[in-house]
Amino acid sequence: MSGEALAIGIGPERAAEIAARVEAFVREVVVPYEKDPRRDHHDCPAEELVAELKAKARAAGLMTPHILEDGRHLSQRETAVVLRATGLSPLGPLALNTAAPDEGNMYLLGKVGSPEIRARFLRPLVEGRARSAFFMTEPSEEGGAGSDPSMMRTSCHVDGDHWVVNGRKAFITGADGAQIGIVMAKSAEGACMFLVDLPDPAIRIEHVPNTIDSSMPGGHAVVAIDNLRIPADQMLGRSGEGFRYAQVRLAPARLSHCMRWLGACIRANEIATDYACRRQAFGKTLIDHEGVGFMLSENLIDLRQAELMIDWCAGILDEGAPGGIESSMAKVAVSEALMRVADRSVQVMGGSGVSGDTIVEQVFREIRAFRIYDGPTEVHKWNLARKIKRDWKAVRT
Known about the structure:
Organism: Sphingomonas colocasiae
Number of domains: 3
Order of helices and strands: HHHHHHHEEEEEEEHEEHHHH
Helix content: 40-55%
Domain Acyl-CoA dehydrogenase/oxidase C-terminal: 240-388
Number of helices: 12
Keywords: FAD, Flavoprotein, Oxidoreductase
Subunit structure: Homodimer.
Protein name: Acyl-CoA dehydrogenase family protein
């Protein structure tokens, strides 16, 4: 399973065939589990529920559908149609092993991991036998790294043939229950990235806060790292290269969020449309009232624009460009458009839209959090403004 092999696409027709199988599986098998009561105390899907769904996906030959058995990885454009299909239910990405943070971690390890790291850490992820966590964000009250990774305070230093890591991390998705961790820390040379087996007594979960979203097992933990010893051969690349590898992961991961949540909002709009076409008020169905009909029309426009933005950015990444600026643009455009879709879907359904009778209210909560995941809208706009200024200066000199 080489990094080179992982970069090869399979063609749009084969990708469309996989996406169709995934969509049928999600709609027919996964959706009925949305009422399953097996949830943890943060209302996230319980490990038992996820394991049951994964077993059914594995039996259907759909485990990790964007990575084939021979290690070939769908192109970003091909991945988009598959991940969109997995996102038709909040449980879909968990069932089919395309959820964050695992999907982004698999992409990173497939691109830059050594053969030994891929065999030890990537294979269990691809096979759906393990969950992972990406330890980068730090507590804001301590002045740690968030949207500005240069503020990283977690430190690492060499001790014989090991590195020793100390610090605290925050909002670490899936840390509770993960078997594999990617830990970022700062050495004298700069940022570093390490692979670790979990659980480890040196990595202690302090707190898992309740958050607005509830789709990711393990929640978003605050973690203390005390004298974590990591063998030197479990570093990705060399000391000081961590930020470069983070960019390899983050640009595609932003886009993957867009792909999955586009699927969720397509489903929310379907539910709202069905409601509006059945519900009677003031002598006619809701869809025949201009205010409601226009909201659903605007939903279709936003969904289509989000799809086109994803396809455009995916094409940039498929051409081999870093895609940082393009993925920032896609993250802003898609997350804001999908927020409008989710909000209108709730509004069209009225009281039913804010109840747990359908997934519409959950999609609304998840999309609200998505506007912050992988960088808030405002941070991406600020980054784009910096580029505008740089380009302006370049033209004038």
